[in-house]
Amino acid sequence: MEALPVFILAAVCGVIVIAFIVVAVLQVVRSTDISLTARTAWVIGIVVAPLIGAMAWYLLGDRTPQIERELGIRGPRSGG
């Protein structure tokens, strides 16, 4: 009976990790600030290395539009 709490804890942690990854993919797909190429690269990175890719998105994803502008991939952001 001691294995049941460990199993429950492992199951809860697994669900949290899966949710973490799914939310990262959804955020990438819904992001309109970055190019299609960048979105595709982010999704591939998250699918190939799920935990590392998702963590990278949460840490670096918000900088992607700025990096694209600096590299000349996309023009300056319009709006106001």
From TrEMBL:
InterPro entries: CLS_N
Main location: membrane
Membrane topology per record: Multi-pass membrane protein
Cell compartment(s), UniProt: Cell membrane
Transmembrane segments: 6-29, 41-60
Annotated GO CC locations: plasma membrane
UniProt xrefs under Pfam families: PLDc_N
Name recorded for this polypeptide: PLDc N-terminal domain-containing protein
Native source organism of the sequence: Microcella daejeonensis
